[in-house]
UniProtKB/TrEMBL annotation:
<dbReference type="InterPro" id="IPR000683">
    <property type="entry name" value="Gfo/Idh/MocA-like_OxRdtase_N"/>
</dbReference>
<dbReference type="GO" id="GO:0050112">
    <property type="term" value="F:inositol 2-dehydrogenase (NAD+) activity"/>
</dbReference>
<dbReference type="InterPro" id="IPR055170">
    <property type="entry name" value="GFO_IDH_MocA-like_dom"/>
</dbReference>
<keyword id="KW-0560">Oxidoreductase</keyword>
<protein>
    <submittedName>
        <fullName>Inositol 2-dehydrogenase</fullName>
        <ecNumber>1.1.1.18</ecNumber>
    </submittedName>
</protein>
<dbReference type="Pfam" id="PF22725">
    <property type="entry name" value="GFO_IDH_MocA_C3"/>
</dbReference>
<feature type="domain" description="Gfo/Idh/MocA-like oxidoreductase N-terminal">
    <location>
        <begin position="5"/>
        <end position="129"/>
    </location>
</feature>
<dbReference type="GO" id="GO:0000166">
    <property type="term" value="F:nucleotide binding"/>
</dbReference>
<dbReference type="InterPro" id="IPR036291">
    <property type="entry name" value="NAD(P)-bd_dom_sf"/>
</dbReference>
<dbReference type="InterPro" id="IPR050463">
    <property type="entry name" value="Gfo/Idh/MocA_oxidrdct_glycsds"/>
</dbReference>
<feature type="domain" description="GFO/IDH/MocA-like oxidoreductase">
    <location>
        <begin position="141"/>
        <end position="279"/>
    </location>
</feature>
<dbReference type="Pfam" id="PF01408">
    <property type="entry name" value="GFO_IDH_MocA"/>
</dbReference>
Length: 379
């Protein structure tokens, strides 16, 4: 069996999710190449050593360049704050290593173009971890749309709402700094629903947006994460709303917020077409609601499909019908697809071009907010 060595950069939230995904993909998906958890990297020796033991990696490093240049590494998996994505990806590509990069792919589309070009030049495989595409219910929505079951699409409607910034005493850490995160909630949560919009409906032609920072000052923390008692200015948006027109004529409505009290990870989509509609809510991620005008009129209404059958996308490798899956499983699907693409020498999806297209939409939203008008998305 062919084996492939992984270097994971970042061991916290996404580092833990990806670590488990490498384990699950081996146990449940029979990928053509076996991923081997070779080296995990973080800045603090003690913390990364703890992570190495707990997440079962063979080695650890405290410098990402040392981790990725090792001869036994074939895939570099980037789970760091956004401002580091570009440098790690460029170096990895130049060393001929395949790349999995967390979203948002980069700080902006200029960086994303550079990453795509260097990855293509060095002929390495590249993926952006837009995990929600690989939720079986969303893959099924894609299949229903491709089969023409909802007809011509008129509306795409999406919210992605969280509430972790509601508390004014929540301090400024990397996600609340423009120079480390690139943007606020638009790049963080918005990138996911922009990717889903492109995946399910098609390319976005133009946008008009509004954004807000409701709490302008928060407490600063030091390099060790301890509170300093001094206040700093928040320079990334807490909420963004935008409208879009798609190239195929559909209209889009999007809302993302970190200030939606009571909402934890509320990702909701509704798509209305000439022949039917589709509704998805991540809090019920194993279900897809489908309305078809082709049903006899006396029984028309939304039906709830439990997407756990063997014939549903990605489900044949999981459990029996009705045994639901959870948050981390779509990451397993992406990693399995990535390993297949390396083995078959095909282009994985979602890839750096998808990451770039998302940034082009994000850049257009930013410009629209500044200029208070509709902006055409650059391609
Ligand atoms: N796909 C998703 O749904 C999803 C969800 C959450 C986060 N993310 C993305 O994942 C990435 C990481 O987010 P997170 O929530 O895991 O962040 P986090 O703050 O929990 O972890 C960041 C990790 O990066 C490491 N790190 C920071 N600087 C480093 C350096 N110079 N060298 C090596 N390691 C360094 C830290 O030690 C830490 O382990 C971000 O791009 C974020 O947007 C994606």
């Amino acid at each position: 069996m062919k084996k492939i060595g992984i270097a994971l950069i970042g061991y916290n939230l996404m580092g833990r999710v990806h670590s488990r995904a490498y384990q699950d993909v081996k146990m449940l998906f029979s990928p053509p190449i076996l991923p081997v958890r070779k080296v995990i990297c973080g800045r603090s020796k003690q913390l990364v050593q703890d992570a190495q033991e707990k997440l079962e990696w063979q080695n650890f490093e405290t410098n990402w360049e040392d981790a990725i240049k090792r001869e036994d590494i074939d895939i570099v998996d980037i789970c760091t704050p956004v401002y580091l994505h570009k440098d790690i990806a460029l170096k990895a590509a130049e060393l001929g290593k395949h790349i999995i990069c967390e979203k948002p792919m980069a700080m902006n589309s200029i960086e994303a173009i550079q990453m795509l070009k260097v990855a293509e030049k060095n002929k390495v495989k590249h993926m952006v971890m837009f995990n929600y595409r690989k939720v079986p219910a969303i893959s099924l929505a894609y299949q229903l749309i491709q089969e023409g079951r909802i007809g011509k699409i008129y509306h795409f409607r999406a919210h992605y709402l969280q509430d972790w910034l509601i508390d004014p005493s929540f301090p400024i850490y990397w996600r609340l700094k423009q120079n480390q995160a690139g943007s606020g909630v638009s790049g963080d949560l918005g990138s996911h629903i922009i990717d889903l919009a492109r995946f399910l409906v098609g390319e976005i032609k133009e946008v008009v947006g509004a954004e807000e920072i409701f709490i302008n000052e928060r407490e600063l923390i030091d390099d060790q994460g301890s509170r300093t008692g001094s206040m700093g200015k928040v320079d990334v948006e807490e909420a963004t709303l935008f409208l879009s027109r798609f190239e195929n004529g559909a209209l889009g409505t999007f809302e993302v917020s970190r200030m939606a009290n009571g909402r934890k990870n509320y990702e909701f989509l509704e798509i209305n077409g000439s022949n039917g509609s589709i509704v998805f809510n991540f809090e019920r991620m194993n279900e897809l609601q489908f309305f078809s005008k082709e049903d006899p009129s006396h029984i028309q209404g939304f039906k709830n499909i439990l997407v756990t059958e063997k014939h549903h996308p990605y489900m044949k490798n999981w459990w029996h019908a009705g045994l639901v899956i959870g948050y981390e499983e779509p990451f397993v699907h992406n990693i399995n697809d990535f390993l297949i693409s390396i083995d078959k020498n095909t282009n994985p999806e979602p890839n750096f071009l998808d990451g770039l297209r998302t940034h082009q939409v994000l850049d257009a939203i930013k410009k629209s907010v500044q200029e208070r008008c509709w902006i055409t998305v650059d391609k």
